[in-house]
Each structure stands twice: as structure tokens, then as C-alpha cells.
Write a structure and sequence with these properties.
9 strands, 3-stranded antiparallel beta sheet, alpha+beta, Immunoglobulin-like, 6-stranded antiparallel beta sheet, 1 helix, single chain
């Protein structure tokens, strides 16, 4: 009886440890993944909004399909920052939003139509800069 009780307690401790380990791992993966989040809450107004999470200066640029620079700015980010751009004056077509920090360059595709603007959620490309 005592052996069965010890076995039951050990199984419960093992199950709890396994669940706790999975939860902590999932939280860590989520914290690493949320570095550059995108959101388009004003779809009808051809607005794009996105959030940055960094501790440095970030350069944000928008290029047209011919790689011509349309808009660019440098932003000092200390934690989290939300940025919105009005694309009502942009012609219909494909544009590219490029976010460049000290550690990486990420490029997103932006589709501008007559009544909407949409940022594709997955990066078109991401280049990690070497740290010296």
C-alpha cells in the first residue's frame, strides 16, 4: 500500500513538472517571437499600423515595386512603439515595408488596393546582421 501511494505521488509530480515545463517553454517562445508585430485596424482607410519592440534606433522605409524609396524615417524605440502610416495617396500596387535595426533587416509585402491596404503577416525576407 505504501509503495502504491509513493508511485501515485511520483506520477502526479512527474505530470505536473511536465505540464509546467511545456507552459514555460511556450511562454519563452512567444516572448522571443513577438519582436515586430503587424496590425491593420483601419482597413477601409488604407492605413497600416504595426508595433515595434526594441531598445535601439530603427529605420522604417517603404519602397514601391521598382525599389524606389517612397517614405523613410528613423525612430528611437525604447521598449514598445506603435506606428501608423496613411497610404491613401499611394497608387494601387505592391509596396515593401522594411524595418532595419542594429541586429536585423526585415522586409514585409504591403498590398495597396483602391479601398484597402494590407501588410502580409509573414516576412518576405529577414536578414540577421553579424554581431562584431
Amino acid at each position: 500500500m505504501i509503495i502504491n501511494l509513493k508511485t501515485c505521488i511520483m506520477k502526479k509530480i512527474l505530470k505536473i513538472s511536465l505540464v509546467l515545463g511545456i507552459v514555460l517553454l511556450a511562454m519563452n517562445v512567444y516572448a522571443v517571437a513577438v519582436n515586430f508585430s503587424l496590425h491593420n485596424k483601419f482597413r477601409q482607410e488604407k492605413m497600416i499600423s504595426f508595433g515595434l519592440e526594441d531598445k535601439d534606433q530603427v529605420k522604417i522605409s517603404i519602397y514601391d515595386a521598382n525599389d524606389k524609396l517612397v517614405r523613410s524615417e528613423k525612430v528611437a524605440v525604447n521598449g514598445k512603439l506603435v506606428r501608423s502610416y496613411d497610404l491613401n495617396n499611394f497608387n494601387d500596387g505592391v509596396y515593401y515595408l522594411v524595418e532595419e535595426s542594429k541586429t536585423k533587416i526585415t522586409k514585409y509585402e504591403v498590398l495597396v488596393l483602391s479601398d484597402s491596404a494590407t501588410i502580409m503577416s509573414d516576412p518576405l525576407s529577414e536578414v540577421v546582421k553579424p554581431v562584431l
